[in-house]
Every structure is written in C-alpha cells, then in structure tokens.
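User: What would this chain look like folded?
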Amino acid sequence: MLKNSKTNIEDIGAFVPHQANMFILELLIDALGLKEDKAILSMNLFGNTSSSSIPLAIVAERDKLRQLDLEKSLLVGFGTGFSLSCLIVDLSQTQYFGVSNLDAN
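Assistant: Here's the prediction, encoded as structure tokens.
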C-alpha cells in the first residue's frame, strides 16, 4: 500500500494497528522499520478488543497522538487467515470523545 500511494514509511506520522497482541505488534513495527514513538498501542489498557481496537486506541492514546504529525496516519486492521485492510488517513482534525461503557442490563 505504501508503494501504491507513493508514501515512504518515514512519511507516516502515526501508526495505529489492530491491537491483536504485543508479540505481533512488536514484530510488525520492527518489520516496517517504524519508530516506536509513532506506534499507537493500547494493548496494556484493553487487550484485544476485536473490531473496536483501532478507534479505541485512537481515543485512549489521544494525548500521544496530539504530539505527532497526523496528516499521514497509517491504520491497519487484520484478522484470521489472510484478511487485511489498511489506509492512510489525515487525523489532524480529529475530534476525540471519551471511551464509553454500555450497560448490558
């Protein structure tokens, strides 16, 4: 995707992956050659929250995000098998709202 969008990994200001597990995330960050300070991780707060992990990480780590160049943010979702989805998006004008818990009762 980086090649198709004519973007270098150095141009990425923030990297927000699906929060699968720390082992996979560390391998992915290393394989991409990303600086760790650009990675937005919330595994220590929530664990693997499945489909909500990317937006949850963005909200939970909003203070860190505000310190980064967000015009080219790489969001990557992946799942079982070979399912993968990614996009480069401008998060610089993002409005952040808190994390909400829904009462199941």
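The chain has a mean pLDDT of 89. If you want, I can go into more detail on any region.
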